[in-house]
Fold this sequence. Notes:
This protein is 79% helix and 0% strand. It is mostly helical. α6 runs antiparallel to α12, α8 (161-179) runs parallel beside α12 (248-271) and α21 runs antiparallel to α23 (470-492). It is globular.
Amino acid sequence: MLKQIQKLTALQLCNLFGINEVRYTKDKKKKNNFILLTLAWILVGIILFAYIALLSVGMIQIGMSEILPMYLYMITSLIILIFSFFKAGGVLFQMKNFEILLSLPVSKTAVVISRFLSMYTTNMFMSLLIMLPGTLIYGIFNHPGPLFYIFIFIGTLFLPLLPMTLSTAVGALIAGIGSRMKHKNLVIAALTIIFAIVVMAGSMLLSGNSGTITPDMIRDITDFMTAQIKKIYPPAVWFGTAAVRTDFISFIMLIGSALVLFVCMVALVQKYFLTICTALNATHAKNNYKMESLSTRSVLKALRNREIKRYFASSIYVSNTIVGYILMLLVPVAILFTGPEKFETLIGYPGIVVHALPVLLGMIAALVPMTACSISIEGKNWWLMQSLPIKTKTMIDSKILTHLTIVLPFYIVSVILSWIAVKPTLINGIWLILIPAVYILFSSVAGIAANIQYPVFNWDNETRVVKQSGSIMLMLLVDFIIGIPPIFLLLMAKTIPSNIIMAATALILTVITIRLYLSNIRKSVLDIQ
């Protein structure tokens, strides 16, 4: 069975990253796109590596080196928890591939374990990107003994197990609840988003009390953060205690709890795998269909309605793309309840509300636009769009219009709440309306351009399109590029008037949006493949 697990895991990873397609395709464009995407991933890894290294140096220099390992362990676990939660249902309980595998001489246990291992492998990359730089910086400054590195290495290997177990359990529970309801995809997406918001808001609130502690009270800060981490995620404290103080009991508790819970979860999923998959993928239909009056619409409206139905038909699609819009709404809500100064203390960026709130809202709204995968989500049905007698412009306009329809309510409410929370001057209020709108329009058009450049149609799992496609990755980089420079200038360049920075940002993004849109509509639908 070990060979079956090995082959199935390798196949799962190859399909997830599109490796086999690149290896055997004769299309040079696909190979070049894969190389560019790999370089983009490496660039993101370098940026994350450098950020964690700088964070680690800062914590050590202010005397908080003792809590650094447990702090990084907790942050990594929370990230894995959220990302695994979004994709656990799609990866573990997808029936499409399993129906094919049933006809092959492979065991059900091998299939389940291979799917867990594919999730574990991707999560381990994230763990290494965060834990490795922190460990290196800690070692350079503190010169720990060999047991420190041994505990860190083994602990990092077991790190993804606990958050994966929790995300799988909660994800299956939510999917099970939603599968019994009429609009199950909407229910599953809503519960998924609620859980993610609770995790993020809970961790922020627990860390927010640090605002009452002065910088001179380093020991109190360390004790306070240790207590907060213990409330949020006790295994992180076991990890830090084991590594820093060479505590074998804490190390055994950490490894034992992770291993036991994970093995129990795998055994439970393996035993009831078919039952869970059948229940989650079941559909219900009524036989009371009645023919009523028919109506006609314009081509654009018909395509827009089709896009909206397709969007809400996928819980993975909704939950992964609507998070940015919800965060855009939660920011002014948090400012309204905590006040600008307290909110800036919570997120650790003084002055960002007063000087850069419009750009912050726009950057969050542009995080993962649904247009970045709206072409790829067509999958093997893309030929239908290619065969219809419609212009490329109409098809693109329908996808942009759908995106704007989804994001518009969040935008309006967030702007109104921001006005109430910060009480801006007239000119700042205008920027608060204009800048996020420009970012939203830009992300709509740029998402289409990215998806045209990196389309993925031969997918078996929507998770690959929504979370791991090249267009999504490209838009994350673009969002970083268009958001960080203006925020940096607004906070640091005191000699440049903020109105000039805002105006330049709006003008540059508007010009780029127009150019991208004109470039997009010149493309032929038949050339997108």
